[in-house]
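Researcher: Here's a chain I'd like modeled. Treat it as a single chain, no partners, no ligands.
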Amino acid sequence: MPVVRDLRILLRLRNFRRLLAVRILSQSADGVYQVALATHVVFSPEKETSAAAIASAMAVLLLPYSLIGPFAGVLLDRWPRRQVFLYGNLLRTALACCTALLILGSAPDWLFYASALCVTAVNRFVLAGLSAVLPRVVDRDRLVLANSLSPTAGTLAATAGGGLAFTVRLLLADSDAAVVLLGAALYLGSALASLSLASGLLGPDTNDNRLRLGKALTTTAHGLMDGLRHLAERRGAARALAAMTVIRFCYGALTVMVLMLCRYAWADSESAGLALLGLAVGASGAGFFAAAVLTPWAAGRLGRFRWMAVCAAAAAVLEPALGLWFTPVPMLVAAFVLGLVTQGAKIATDTVVQTAVDDSFRGRVFSLYDVLFNVAFVGAAAISAVVLPPDGKSAAVVIGVAVLYAAVAVTMARWSRSGEVL
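Model: Modeled as a single isolated chain. Structure tokens:
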């Protein structure tokens, strides 16, 4: 098969393999850390979690990155990106150890959230950087395939990390602190893996006309506007980002609904609910893997915009058909489908942005991309908190999300016919 042949060629690229190792270790640590947060905040027996509480936690952990994102972009376009991976993961190692100490010491919730906030703040730099540097290690002709393999491998690594966290928790008497320390060890491994990459390999390109770092940081708003103007000049990239933001909103709304279903509707204990959530995450991860295999072929045959339209249309039809039953088995199938279509659309979007945006602007644009993701997800959680009943069963959410998917499908199909076939 051509995809298998190209995949073998891609994996022969030494620097791509090394960058992939950094991503896998980093995102597996993210998966471990996120499971620790979920079990400590959502599934603790002493906590009566509501949709509003979940939305509040997401806002605390994600909304501040709407401010951090522009700074990340400016710095990613100035700092050696290899050093961002090295020092960023070393810092997360130390911060995760602090989180473990807070859990062991039964610290107040605000202090726990502050520690988690710092870990995730550094994550903005690392993830945006991993996307921005991919064209530095892969030729243009194989970017779609690289975007299929690399982010999807990271997502699967996060899923595997979550599964490993469940296992550690089971073996060590439900110790959230031990799970967090496992995440710290994986962050350290990612930092060490980044040392295998040459310090100048990942850019950014030097520019003698750049402002001094201090002045750049004081004029971050101007840098953000430069990134927005650059993006506005690349209409295809802007449209792909707009569509992906809506898809992310839909995914966020359904995530909160599934969390509530697992916590209250499908299980009579916290451990059983957590196990069902693990199955849902696994089904979604399988969908991500399927998207990595299918997207290079589908995007090559249809074009990236048409492929995004197909993904959104499939979700518009299958999500209500499976979700309105509000029972575990159809919802697990829906999780697989949504994993496939969400990751398929993201692979296409990543490739459009990477190929349309100049290297000197990629850090800023991918940071904007990250901000849109966070705002869309938190906005979806906030709306879900208002609409969802205590057990998570809401036909209004399911139907509303289907309508949004349908709108994306129609819009992307119209743009592809108007000549924006990318």
